[in-house]
Amino acid sequence: MRSAVLFDIDGTLLYARGIGRAAFGTAFEAAYGVPYPNLGGLSFVGATDSNVVRTMASECGVDSTPAREEHFFLRLAHAIDAGLSQNQPLVYPGVPDLLGRLTRRGHALGIITGNVRATAWSKLRHAGLDHAFSFGAYGDDHHERPAIARIALGRVPSNAAVRLLIGDTPLDIQAAHANGLKAVAVATGWVSADDLAAAGADLVLPDFADAAAAAARIEALF
Ligand SMILES: [Mg+2]
Predict the structure, then answer these.
(1) What's the rounded Cα separation, in Å, for the pair 207 and 211?
(2) Are 155 and 135 contacting, i.e. CB atoms less than 8 angstroms apart?
(3) Integer Cα distance of 15 and 89 in angstroms
(4) Cα(12) to centroid of ligand 1, in Å?
(5) Along the chain (222 residues), what's the average pLDDT of each consecutive run of 10 residues?
(6) I need a surface site. Which of 56, 61, 129, 186 has the fewest CB within 10 A?
(7) Beta-ladder partners of 5
(8) How far is the CA of 216 from the centre of ligand 1 (A)?
(9) Is beta strand 14-15 parallel, antiparallel or unpaired with respect to 90-91?
């Protein structure tokens, strides 16, 4: 049976250059009718977009209704897509090479992200990585990452079995282990290699710059 690998997006494959944070501000004011006062204080590390916007609404004392969330995510996707058209994401070293190597070895690649669909695919498209992935689960599937990973497992191509999840935060490691997957952590995001190891990752890599070595170490975990 083919193997499949799940990848987180932000901090793992790419950095969207802070465009997401600014976009959260403009989309929030449009959808909720009030400005959010502390954009710089928001933490996105390992978070899901749904949980971030619900926290913003709660702090502003406004209800986060399903309609407002839908409006917010529509605005958010437009703002991020426009921002990334002007300023493309930073793709971390070795990422395209690693994805190519895993694909040529016959593995199916999927996305597990707290981003909603439209935002996830906007980032991947602007990064030139959109054609590498054949399935995924997103922040509009669920607001908690372990549940998003579980949903991704239900979407894997029928001839493949998911072996591991690759991410950049302890929440990715938890999501992997909660679903019986090995956890590979990469320290290109905002969490140090030491902290990722302490969080229980089965393999910690500083980055994917040596894509051949990274692919071999990942496959050794299958
Ligand atoms: Mg991440």
Answers:
(1) 9
(2) yes
(3) 6
(4) 6
(5) 94 94 95 95 87 95 95 96 96 98 97 95 97 96 95 94 96 97 97 98 98 97 93
(6) 61
(7) 109, 164
(8) 22
(9) antiparallel
